[in-house]
Amino acid sequence: MKIDEILEAATVIPVLEIGALERAAPLARALAAGGLRVIEATLRTAVAVDAVKAMKDAEPNLIIGMGTILSEGDIEKSLPCQPDFLVTPGTTRSLFQSLKKCGIPSLPGVANASEAMTAAEEGFTAQKFFPAEPAGGTAYLKALNGPLPKITFCPTGGISAEKASEYLALPNVACVGGSWIATKDKIALGDWDTIQMQARKVVESLR
Ligand code: 3PG
């Protein structure tokens, strides 16, 4: 799948920080039962790679990305779990090269017009707009659409259920990401009912 197809299938991507491996499979089941198709696990915990493997085993139809990729070393670290896509919070020249070399569909992070243009020049026209709310929110993305209509964004960072639909109404927003659907605390508590309900709510409200 190309990155554009993944974003289109997603509409909303829950960004997950999984601290304990045994939480991974039930979390994947709750999100899939809630109707979500695309999820992102962040490479911020020691179990992240094994957690993606466990989620893929539990829900083979989920499209699972690895986020918080900062370097070529992070890409290499994530390879054993065969992520369906990679997400970065920002980019560097060497990270662009590493993303292109690995061949995995990627969503590089940008926070302004210059970074968006640089990423597009490197061949990435689907980008994560991060951190979306502090970086200017819907007003900023709306303004970018005039000069940069070929770039599509997945805004992430500070987005709530209420704000998600405002972002999705913009022509240059393919999907939104955020941790509100399955927060770190809810995952740690194993509160699968709430997580499934939040996923269902978001899927239904955006339908
Ligand atoms: C990310 O890693 O993309 C963000 O931390 C998610 O942002 P949020 O927690 O503000 O939703």
Overview of the molecule:
By secondary structure, the chain is an alpha/beta fold. It has 10 helices and 9 strands. The strands form 2 sheets. A 6-stranded parallel β-sheet has the order 5-4-3-2-1-9, with helices on both faces. Strands 6-7-8 form a 3-stranded parallel β-sheet, with helices on both faces. Helix 2 links the parallel strand 1 (12-16) and strand 2. Helix 2 (24-33) crosses helix 3 (48-58) and helix 2 (24-33) packs parallel to helix 10. The longest helix has 15 residues, at 192-206. The radius of gyration is 16 Å and the shape is globular. The mean pLDDT is 97. The structure holds 3-phosphoglyceric acid. 3-phosphoglyceric acid is lined by residues 15, 42, 67, 130, 156-159, 177-180. Residues 15, 42, 67, 130, 156-159, 177-180 line the site of 3-phosphoglyceric acid.
Largest sheet: 6 strands, parallel
The helix content is 40-55%
CATH-derived architecture? Alpha-Beta Barrel
Q: Which word captures the global form?
A: globular
Structural class: alpha/beta
CATH class categorisation: Alpha Beta
What number is the mean pLDDT? 97
Notable traits:
binds 3-phosphoglyceric acid; 207 residues; single chain; TIM Barrel; 3-stranded parallel sheet; alpha/beta; 16% strand
Architecture blueprint of SSEs:
Layout: H1 3-10, E1 12-16, H2 24-33, E2 38-42, H3 48-58, E3 63-67, H4 72-78, E4 85-87, H5 93-102, E5 106-107, E6 109-110, H6 113-121, E7 126-129, H7 137-145, E8 152-155, H8 161-168, E9 176-178, H9 184-189, H10 192-206
Parallel strand pairs: 1-2, 1-9, 2-3, 3-4, 4-5, 6-7, 7-8
Helix pairs in contact: 2-3, 2-10
The chain binds 3-phosphoglyceric acid.
3-phosphoglyceric acid binds at residues 15, 42, 67, 130, 156-159, 177-180.
